[in-house]
Fold this protein.
Amino acid sequence: MAAPREHNAKLAAILTEAGLTHSQVAATFVQVAAEAGAREFAAVGRSHVSHWVAGSQPSGLAPVYLSEALSRRLGRTVSPEEIGMTSPVRPREGASGWDTDTLIALADLRSEGEAEVNRRQALGAAFSAAALALPAETWWEQTARTTRPASSTLHVGAADVDAVREMTAAFSRIDQRRGGAHARSAAFRYLTEDVARLLRGRFPGEQVRRDMFAAAGELAYINGWMRFDCTEHAAAQRLFRVAVKLSAEADDKPLIGHILRAMAHQAADLGHPRHAVEIADASVLGERYSLACARERALLGVVRARALAAAGERRGAAAALIRAEDDLRAAGPGDDEPARVFFFAEASLAHETARTLRDIGDFDGAAREFQRSVRTRQAAAFTRTHVVTLGYLGEVLSRTGRIEEAASAWSASLDAVQGVQSGRTRAVVEQMRSAISPLRARSPQLAGLDARARAYLATAG
């Protein structure tokens, strides 16, 4: 440990507020570090805490573990900065990052805060191909057996689980309608502050604890999806991994499959087809598929088809599409479905089918499926995806020489995009301008569309 420096008044004030002895803090610190697999901190004791109060800076990730220990003791969020310490930057996680304790991984996000997440994104923090590697099968089994003693006095019950699910549904609906940028700050704070506090509470039974971890996992996934929609891919990737950890600890296999499907979707979009196939295969493995409702099985299957198409596996993609269609056809109004699949219906299946056909070079087939998606979608509720579908439709129509039809689709896309804040819609409009550029001199209509697209991009942020 470093030699003592100037007295750490912030840490001393926190200990006084909580009425904690240095020995109590040390004991909780060791528990937190053990959960994170940080064996180097197993011998931390009273004297170490005394040195930190005296002004020394603990090494490595110890500030994160100390802030988590104090959070558990106080029953509220305490960041490293609040106790006068520097929050370390964790090395980018590879496959070994799965060994980080679930609540520590969530605490890492919380200790950074959204400002730091956004700063890293602005500086070009990269999506990590290494972090696409999934853990070994033993990890899933061990994580599902995790038990946790209560680490705060907060009593958490089934009604709290319901509240988290209601908030998650609200965030999901605003994302579908208005794009991920509209509420991502609120969703991030709700996850990393309010729900993180609930996860440390006292539960009336193990099932309620697992239900809360599953609800938190779904919320983390929605946070990741909103970041993905904003093309903040590094942040999305970290949130998806936290979502998997939470869901694995809840042992909610269909939810795990749902989140892995999102990770495969992101990997395919960012040009990592082999990783996308591996993750998509994992999403439909065993009970992740068999215990899912028919609608969710269709969603998993069509994203797997897309991944296979991106990897050049045409026959496998075609078989996966047929299976996804059969699964969705089996879905009925009386099914017991989780709220998270509310958005997936014929329009969504057609959209992803079209993208699959486009990726294997069947532009006529892709155009037909994009048109089916446009016809069958409830555009008022799913505006963001409607804008994207119309943009993609214009692209494939232009590739087949149907310029007037393409212009009509692009015009409808620009009509619908007002009020949507989404990196994906911005990317669609940028692609629209690229497709129009060599053609606009031949058509006043295309020149007008280009001007509208340019005006939108100038104000879209």
The longest helix spans residues 206-229.
